[in-house]
Amino acid sequence: MFSIHCSPDQNDLSSPTWGTIYLEVDGQYYPHKLWQDCCSRVLGAWLTSAALEEDYFENSFQEGNYAFTGRRQESNVTLDVGNKSVTLPWLGYVSILTAAANDYLAGLSSLRPTLSAEDRSVEEVCRMLEAGKRLTFRKERAVWSDS
C-alpha cells in the first residue's frame, strides 16, 4: 500500500503553505509521520514531475535530505521510498498524488478565504493531470498537451 498524507498547519496561519506531509508504504512512514515541510512547494514539484511523465524521477522534500524515486515501466511505476519499494499503476500513483494535493488545498481553503499564487498553481497542475494532460517543453516553454 502507498499513500501520501498532507495537511496544512492549522496553528500557524502566518505560513499557510507549511504543514504535515509524509508518505506511507506498507504501514511505514517517510520521512516520519509528522514531517513538517513547505507543502505547496513540495506538492507543486511532485505534481510537475508527474506531469512530465519521465521514465525516472526523484521527488524531494523541501526540508532535510529526503527524497523518493520512481521508475516507470510501461503502465506501472516502482517507487523507492526509504528502505521500501512499491509498484503500482502509473495512473494510480497520479491519482494518489492529485488526491493528496486536493485534500491539502481543501484544508487550506477552510483556513483562509483565498489561496496564494503558489497554492493556485498546485491547483492548476492537479486539474491538468486529472484531465489527462502532460507537460512538455517546446522552445524552453512548458506546454500542456494530451497524454
The total of beta strands comes to 10
Radius of gyration: 15 Å
Termini separation: 26 Å
**How much helix, percentage-wise, in residues?**
25-40%
- The portion of residues forming beta strands comes to 35-45%
Characterize the structure shown.
34% of the residues lie in helices and 39% in strands. With 147 residues, it is an alpha+beta fold. The chain has one domain. The strands form three sheets. Strands 1, 2, 3 and 4 form a four-stranded antiparallel β-sheet that branches. The relative contact order is 0.18.
Structural topology:
Elements: E1 2-8, E2 18-25, E3 28-30, E4 36-38, H1 39-52, E5 56-60, E6 67-73, E7 76-81, E8 84-89, H2 90-111, H3 117-130, E9 133-138, E10 141-146
Antiparallel strand pairs: 1-2, 2-3, 2-4, 5-6, 6-7, 7-8, 9-10
Helix pairs in contact: 1-2, 1-3, 2-3
Summarize the structure.
By secondary structure, the protein is of the alpha+beta class. It contains 3 helices and 10 strands, in the order E-E-E-E-H-E-E-E-E-H-H-E-E. The chain is globular.
Keywords, separated by commas or semicolons:
alpha+beta; 34% helix; globular; 147 residues; four-stranded antiparallel beta sheet; 10 strands
